[in-house]
Amino acid sequence: MRTPFTEAFGVEYPIVQGGMQWVGRAELAGAVSEAGGLGLITALTQPTPEDLTKEIARAREITDKPFGVNLTILPTIKPVPYDEYRHAIVDAGITIVETAGSNPAPHMDFFHEHNVKVLHKCTSVRHAVKAQAVGVDGISIDGFECAGHPGEDDVPGLILIAAARKEISIPMIASGGFADGRGLVAALALGADGINMGTRFMCTVESPIHEKVKQQIVENSELDTELIFRTLRNTSRVASNEVSRETVRILNEGGKFEDVQQLVAGVRGVKVYENGDPEAGIWSAGQVQGLIDDIPTCADLISRIVAEADEIVNERLSALVGAGEQVQA
Amino acid sequence: MRTPFTEAFGVEYPIVQGGMQWVGRAELAGAVSEAGGLGLITALTQPTPEDLTKEIARAREITDKPFGVNLTILPTIKPVPYDEYRHAIVDAGITIVETAGSNPAPHMDFFHEHNVKVLHKCTSVRHAVKAQAVGVDGISIDGFECAGHPGEDDVPGLILIAAARKEISIPMIASGGFADGRGLVAALALGADGINMGTRFMCTVESPIHEKVKQQIVENSELDTELIFRTLRNTSRVASNEVSRETVRILNEGGKFEDVQQLVAGVRGVKVYENGDPEAGIWSAGQVQGLIDDIPTCADLISRIVAEADEIVNERLSALVGAGEQVQA
Description:
Two copies of one chain form a homodimer. With 329 residues, the first copy, chain A, is an alpha/beta fold. Chain A has a domain at 9-209: TIM Barrel, CATH 3.20.20.70. Chain A has helices at residues 4-9, 26-34, 49-62, 82-91, 105-113, 125-133, 157-165, 181-190, 199-202, 211-219, 242-252, 257-265, 270-275, 298-320, 323-328; strands spanning 15-17, 40-42, 68-72, 96-100, 117-122, 138-142, 172-175, 195-197, 225-228, 236-239. Chain A has an eight-stranded parallel sheet with strand order 1-8-7-6-5-4-3-2. A two-stranded antiparallel sheet of chain A has the order 9-10. Chain A starts with a helix and ends with a helix. The relative contact order of chain A is 0.13. Chains A and B meet through helix 7, helix 8, helix 14 and helix 15 of A and helix 7, helix 8, helix 14 and helix 15 of B.
């Protein structure tokens, strides 16, 4: 497949593995890139810039093809040495960075001076327009369906992708709600040049999380997510379990962050992924769980998506669209 | 175009004008059907069954092609003579009914005995499965993006359509978030057999609402809606204005229906549409406002959507999907 995204970012298929805290490690990013997609190592999952350098080297053992690094910039309690992470990224020869979380402007000169292309992920048309204006090389537009941070606008991809495309002339991929060839074709029809998938890649053989969490994603339906931290205007979509439902309940009843801090901090993310108890804490998963029924390798997943997209375009859609005219002519 | 929906319901294009209170009158339904789509007269917009009979006759003056009637069954303060409306529908020779609001089971025998096909609109996979089981002839699956009643699950079309398709084998159209050929192709790719549009048809020349409301839809973006009655678990998506925002505020602060009843009842719907002040009361509009930029005739709108869908499938998608393989071969 060839789209403005594959051309600009030098990958075979317009399928990106989204940056995911605790999940975006060498095994996964390497496997996705080796299969022709764009894998992303999550920088801040590595405790130090030196660890990131080692993680990039580990991915290089898996693939010779390009992979990238996600650099998410969010308010944190402990200051993060972003400048050192940036240097680790370019010193390791990485040529693609996904930024997310806040305005990428402060990083653009540095990355472009080092020949790094920047793909910026955001959740609204106005932020996409701003990122395009400060010179990013691609936009990843992320709808309400997504795992992690959907923002506060609640605009799903069906509308957000088409609305963003009206304003965005650089390569743009769609994120949130994608798991298969149907979604890829829908995204392309709506005006995107490819898709980003998070939850779907979490649920692959190479994904470095506990098997029981993957099985839970397979079992979950599109109804099994919660939006936590909504009242704090820092919404995050996570898998529904007792911890996330309790978090929502406390905050909806007027609780403050302090009231749920212990609930979410002691057990979140990495511990669930490592210990394999999907009920033990907060972990991200999107509504697209409802479309995930198996745990394939990244290579099988990507080739299946590409084959399904091809079949949809060249058989299903070609047969439906235009067929009536021929019959009536 | 030919899809399982156009075949089963006997229309030229798989484009339905959704049932809309105060908007689904003869002028609009007649124009949509005359243009090859499926227009729907909203039964309960007519004060009596006799008025519905007259409204159907008015639509027959506009088109010889099939149009349908929407029968929405919701709890009401005044009892509605549903049985009389049903008889008015079949006595007028209507062959297509859209049901919505609750389980269509009590109406199925009557309609099928009178050779009426039933298209049931619902907002979740489980309700779609139930409707299929009780024998409806088609499903209209309605995502979180939609105007009016999105339900309480908050699953957008991108996921809901594909998830429903896994369970639904009868003709199924997608509703919520559609306004153009991009959306039609996306819906078909996701597994739907057509689309339903509400807000987009509100904003046409033939739509029997005040010009200023249409202009407001054109001006509004995807951000300009509110979800009212959320705390009452009777959510409705309406245009954002001072009245709807105040309604949300009062209910979010613990108010009861009684606290907003006067606010929403005195000025809602029909008065806005007739008087033309978009700020004066509650009126339905979907997030798809962000994709609506003009006020075309229904014929121009439908032919544009069909032409755009054709171009997307036969030019854009065909060029993108499969292109890489050819280049590399």
